Structure formats: structure tokens, C-alpha cells
Amino acid sequence: IVRQTLEENPDAAESYRSGKETALNWLFGQVMKKAAGKANPQVVRGELERQLKGS
Fold first, then answer.
1. 20 three-state secondary structure
2. How far apart (Å, rounded) are the C-alpha atoms in residues 54 and 19?
3. Among the residues of 1-55, which ranges form H helices?
4. Is the separation of the CB atoms in 15 and 40 below 8 Å?
5. Cα 4 to Cα 1: distance, rounded to the nearest angstrom
6. CATH of the domain at 18
7. How many domains is the chain built from?
């Protein structure tokens, strides 16, 4: 779900890489919405940060 969200929202991912911390929160919300709130928030946030910094 995290990878799919990043692929669907490249502008938000780029905004985060440019220093906009709010983009991470927005992407986090999108992932949680897709997961219907059933994903572990700590895991989702960690995976988002890992993928954003790694790509």
C-alpha cells in the first residue's frame, strides 16, 4: 500500500524530499485511508520514511 501510494502521488513524495514535512503527514493519511485504518501507524510511518529516503 505504501509503494502504491507513493507511485500515485509523486508530487507529494517530491515535496517531502524537498523539505516539506507536511507532505509526509498527507501521504500517511492516504495510506491509512487505503488500509481502512487497519494498518499499524508506526509501521506505516516508518515504511513511508524508509521508502522516501531510499528512492
1. coil
2. 15
3. 2-8, 10-17, 21-34, 41-54
4. no
5. 5
6. 1.10.10.410
7. 1
Cβ-contact 34, 54 below 8 angstroms: no
DSSP 39: S
Cα distance between residue 17 and residue 53, in whole Å: 8
Let me know: does 6 contact 27? Beta carbons within 8 Å.
yes
Q: Domain range spanning residue 26? A: 2-54
Q: What does the alpha-carbon distance between residue 23 and residue 38 come to, in Å, rounded to a whole number?
A: 21
For residue range 11-38, list pLDDT tens digits in order.
999 999 999 999 999 999 999 999 998 9
Task: Tell me the pTM.
Answer: 0.90
